[in-house]
């Protein structure tokens, strides 16, 4: 009887584990679909942002009326809502300083 009970518990444990595996596989497939949808959404947003960026730069002009080169400038949006056109070389040096500050704080 003890051996029979042991086999029964073992069988129940196996069935529970198989059910858990099935549930996890289902969850994994669901997460894969969600990940795929998120990736597509991010891709679309990047494309829209890129189009907006190009559209903005196509309309911008310097003091002499010449188009601003998007390879030399970036659009910077501050937390306060102000929008600035900044030369790229200034942004890179600011990012380096920001990274150094973050590393020091850690």
Give a description of the structure.
This protein has helices at residues 2-59, 88-105, and strands at residues 73-77, 83-87. Strand 1 and strand 2 form a beta hairpin. It starts with a helix and ends with a helix. The radius of gyration is 28 Å and the shape is rod-shaped. The mean pLDDT is 87. It has 2 helices and 2 strands; from the N terminus they run H-E-E-H. The chain has a two-stranded antiparallel sheet with strand order 1-2. Helices cover 72% and strands 9% of the residues. The protein is mainly α and 106 residues long. It has one domain (1-92). Residues 2-49 form the BZIP domain. Pfam families: bZIP_1. Keywords: Coiled coil. GO terms for molecular function: DNA-binding transcription factor activity, RNA polymerase II-specific; RNA polymerase II cis-regulatory region sequence-specific DNA binding. InterPro entries: bZIP, bZIP_sf, NFE2-like.
